[in-house]
Amino acid sequence: MKRFLTVVSALALSLPVSAWANDTLTIGIQLEPPHLDPTSAAAGAIDDVTYANIFEGLTRFTEDGSVIPSLAESWDISKDGLTYTFKLHDGVKFHDGTTMDAEDVKFSLDRARGEDSTNAQKGLFAGIAEVNVLDPRTVEVKLSETDGNFLFNMAWGDAAIVAPESIENIKIKPVGTGAFKFDKWVQGDRVELVRNEDYWGQPADLRSATFKFISDPTAAFSAMMAGDLDAFSAFPAPENLIQFEADDRFKVVIGSTEGETILSTNNKLPPFDNVKVRKALAHAINRQEIIDGAQFGYGTPIGAHLAPHHAAYVDLTGNSQYDPELAKSLLKEAGVEEGVTVSLKLPPPSYARRGGEIIAAQLRAVGINAEISNLEWAQWLEQVFRGKDYNLTIVSHTEPMDIGIYANPDYYFQYDNADFQALIKELRGTTDPEKRNDLLKQAQTIISEDYVNGYLFQLPRLSVAKKEVEGLWANAPTQAVDLTGVRWAQ
Amino acid sequence: MNRSRLNWSLLIGALLVSIFAVAAVISLFWTPYDVTGMNISARLKVPGDGYFLGTDHFGRDLLSMIMAGAQTSIAVAVIAVGIGMGLGVPLGLAAAGSRGWLDEVIMRGNDLAFAFPALVIAILITAVFGASAVNAIIAIGIFNIPVFARLTRGAALSLWSREFILAARVAGKGAARISVEHILPNIANLLIVQGTIQFSLGILAEAGLSYVGLGAQPPTPSWGRMLADSQTLVGLAPHLALVPGLAIILTVLGLNLLGDGLRDLLDPKLRMVRR
Amino acid sequence: MISYLTKRLASLFASLLVASIVIFTVIEVIPGDPAAYMLGMNARADTIAALRSELGLDGGVLERYLAWVGGMLVGDFGTSYTYRTPVADMIADRLWISLPLALYALCLTIVIAIPTGVFAASRRGQAGDYGIVGATQIGVAIPNFWFAMILILIFAIQLRWFSAGGFPGWEKGFWLSVKALTLPAIALALPQAAILTRVMRSSLIEVLGEDFMRTARAKGLTSWQTILHHGLRNALIPVLTIIGLQFAFLLAGGIIIEQVFALPGLGRLVFQSISQRDLIVVESVVMLLVFAVIMTNFLVDLAYAVVDPRLRVAR
Asked: Which of A23, B248, B266, C39 can pair with A120 through a Cys bridge, CB separation 3.0 to 4.6 Å?
């Protein structure tokens, strides 16, 4: 009898453990995607769910930001650098069972660069002159001019390969080639994926995965604490990480992003059309206080517009050390009146809202009155980004390697420097990595010394997961939550 | 109902309201610390410890913020009630004085205004004009108009059939003049009592709007925004949510008690009807 | 009665028409282009133009208004700009949370308020009455979103009895869903219960003061019997009116609470749609909420007219 009881209790004990079979994962992300077509909207949440999981491109990013083959197993580049010939993997099938071949690649690229394309990154495809199908597994892409970034461009989620057969319903029923298949979307709550059993590459460890959308940081916090979620990618409230760190059920994963968080400045509007005033602005800002106050210490100070983990990075924070007295005397030299009022327009993320309040307080200390208005993204795009009706704003530029935006005088910074524009032009035509890094270093120095914007910090990627979850990306070289390599530790 | 309890209502109500009113006035020229002054190294301090009510996530003094926040809350609510009275009372008087189609139009318009979900409209208003204290006032004020219009009309209608009004009519006074000279003074008490109630609802509404980020913009302190800021920190520092919450509750409670007390003082007949 | 009904119906339709015009106009002037929002910072002007025409944002104002109203009449609320799914489906999905939440909160409100109000009225002027009246004063003064935060702090973060937000979905189990709606329903119900308790109390006190109640007592019925059999029935009429109003309020008023608890209901749909400039969704949801309130008022008026023939001529 006693033995029987032991067996029963052992069974009872083991039951919940085996029922908690470790081949599913529920992961939280903050924003819900508006739809699931990465090739026709900018919303990062679409890529969170679909990148590498559902959709794949010719190439792809790895966790450290390097570009490796994906649907294209190899490629040849012609001597003049204008023709790329991609050899596609054999036996790749879309989730609806149709075959992925060169026609699909041609369709996808032509669709993205076409007249009525709604691709948010249409610029990635601007260099393509024509796409030719050589045979079902070979496709040739001709460029109009050499582009050192072409393979990099093809790794973006916006360059995913889609099929004409399933394009009509792609927004609500995405059909890709990835290691997971779309299963179900409960709007306002979650998207469920299941493993693609016919995957052409290394199959996923997880049998199924659920993306849960929790925009409210408190709800996200308690959902993790309650064990409802196995992980949360890009946790929205850095202040809560202290509590996760103290709890031995969880691990906090701190990685890098491509997000240079900057105090964007309108270089055409007074008073910041004067480089002296911009320099004063830079010295009035105490970066560490912003990182501590807005990010609870999570963030790396930057002095220009390039990610610190990049090989071409130069530390230029010395150009803009915190020195309120210097700032005051520079303002006086430039003839700016004490108490001058400027607008500070802030988009929704907490780094912007909190950082803005701190910066306003710091500017007040040197006699600049920054008037805060909190905007939604739609208003921000309209007023600040497109309307250029602002003095200052805070935003994280999360596109990788985007220092080229400073060469566009119509960009919302309105920075117009012919030397810099020439430098970027040279960079575009350069393919030698050594030479490129050198040019990138010069570029950083120019914008740092021109004090184009206030450079604050590199946005970290802060994720939380249960201790046993392995293989989650720490870094965010692109917007993605790649689950193909995620598994539970035994 | 005995008199003593009623006086208690008035007394406690007046006391609570004046505490916050006085705090608001004092904050105009003095607060313990600079309201907007940050001290990141002294953040999230618990009450006591050099700061009477503790500090927030930027190291700002909560007591100073509560005092200055009272100013925002009271100003927004008072002006919103002013808008409601200023437009609602004349509309109600006109409706009662004219009857007929004008009455119908005004009252249907009123029903319509009641039918709109107030918060959703407030959100739409701020989406159009941007978030600010002024737009919060407008959004709250608009919904005070039908309240006062309906109340005024109802009370005025019952007066119109009274003899002293008939006498005034016989004397040749027009409807507009009668409304101003005879009706208005007789419903003033009612309006004051309702005004107090709308005042308290205005404080709640301002807190709600600021909480969702549609009220006064930083660095202007606001109780609702203090609550919103505290949301993710509530586990670390519960006082960040408790302090502004209690400020709101005590002010609204004070105003409601004051309204009850005033009603009993001004018009004992009205004692029953109140929800 | 017929002429009253015709008149009332005409004014109902006029109200709805005016409401639709007001809503459409407000939405029309909201700044921010949905297409630009969806395509983000790197979008090119030609891409935005292409998306605008795809979304059908090119037509004239009158044309779009008529299409919207005409569509609603046959149950077609249009297609969401961002989600690209029929708005009617989205609203239906969200109603499955907002409606049960409102009903749950209403049930709690009634269950708390009626007995408390009756008790207070029966103990009028005694300690119990003072205690309840005082409690309702505080209840009315508590902002429901603050109460929600405190509930989360205590029951979700400290005690971990409930999760602090989210909704599992009805298909995951009835009780699980009810549990997820419990804290939000309590947060919504408490201030409403305070209001209803006061109405119940004063209404009953009023009825108890009337002549027929004294007669009933004179007939020898004991105090509790009188209250339950005669008083309550008569006192419930104003209470029912308030309950009707509260239901309409709860349906729209859950908007902040849904935000606090991350519930995918109608309120959150409105919030999200406004920030994404998914204006067609905003229009339709606001119209639906207005419709609900106008219909509730209409039905309440009608019910009164049936009960009390004098009212049929009054307006």
From this structure: C39
Please tell me which chains touch A, using 3 or more CB pairs under 8 Å as the contact test: B, C
C40-99 residues touching B, CB cutoff 8 A:
none
Bridge partners of B218, per DSSP, are none
The answer to whether B245 contacts C143, with C-beta atoms less than 8 Å apart, is yes
Residue contact C143–B273, C-beta within 8 A = no
What chain A holds in terms of domains, given with CATH numbers, is 18-33+175-255+461-488 (3.40.190.10), 44-169 (3.90.76.10), 259-460 (3.10.105.10)
> Which domains are present in chain B?
2-36+45-273 (1.10.3720.10)
Strand, helix or coil for residue A349:
coil
Distances (CA, A) of B211 to B54, B205, B218, C144: 21, 10, 12, 11
Report DSSP state, residue A100.
P
Q: How far is the CA of B219 from the CAs of A140, A324, B72, B111, B207, in angstroms?
A: 57, 21, 12, 38, 16
- The pLDDT assigned to C22 comes to 87
Distance in angstroms (rounded) separating the CA atoms of residues C269 and C292: 17
Task: Look up residue B209 and give its two tokens.
Answer: 């709007």
Number of neighbours of residue C173 by Cβ within 10 angstroms? 11
Contacts of C212 (CB under 8 A, 6+ apart): C230
A41–C40 C-beta distance less than 8 A: yes
The sign one gets for the Cα dihedral A143, A146, A152, A153 is negative
pLDDT digits (tens, 9 = 90+) for A124-133: 898 899 999 9
- Tens digit of pLDDT for each residue in C142-176? 998 999 989 988 888 788 788 777 787 787 788 88
Please count the other Cβ atoms lying within 10 Å of the Cβ belonging to residue A441: 17
Measured between CB atoms, does C13 come within 8 Å of chain B? no
Collapsing DSSP to helix, strand or coil, B123 comes out as helix
CATH number for the region C89-275 comes to 1.10.3720.10
Q: Are C286 and B257 an interchain contact pair (Cβ–Cβ within 8 Å)?
A: no
**E runs forming strands in A48-97:** 59-61, 67-69, 72-77, 83-88
CB contact under 8 A, B232 and A218: yes
Q: Which residue of chain B comes nearest to C270, CA vs CA?
A: B120
Nearest to A374 among B43, B57, B217 (CB): B217
The partner residues of A260 in beta bridges, in order of sequence, read A397, A458
State the ipTM, two decimals: 0.85
| Domain range summary for chain C, segments of one domain joined by + | 89-275
DSSP A143: E
Chains with ≥3 CB–CB distances under 8 Å to B: A, C
Integer angstrom CA distances of residue B187 from A367, A440, B161, B182, B192: 52, 76, 14, 9, 9
Residue B13 and residue B263 in contact, taking contact as beta carbons nearer than 8 Å: no
Place of tokens 């009315």: C140
Q: Cα distance from C154 to chain A (closest Cα, Å)?
A: 12
Instruction: Please tell me the pTM assigned to this model.
Output: 0.83
For B116, nearest residue in chain C (alpha carbons): C290
In terms of CA atoms, which chain C residue is nearest residue B239?
A: C150
Task: Please name the amino acid found at residue A101.
Answer: D
Residue C203: burial class (beta carbons within 10 Å; 0-12, 13-18, 19+): buried
For all residues of chain C together, what is the average pLDDT?
82
C260 shares contact with chain A (CB less than 8 Å):
yes
C-alpha triplet B141, B144, B146: angle, nearest 5°: 130
Note the residue count of chain B: 275
Q: With beta carbons under 8 A apart, name residues in chain C contacting B123.
A: 270-271, 274
Smallest CA–CA distance, residue B190 to chain C, in Å, is: 19
Q: What angle do CA A325, A328, A329 make, to 5 degrees?
A: 90
Separation between Cα atoms, residue B150 and residue B127, nearest integer Å? 29
Do B117 and C125 lie within an 8 Å CB cutoff?
no
Residue B110 has which token pair?
């009123």
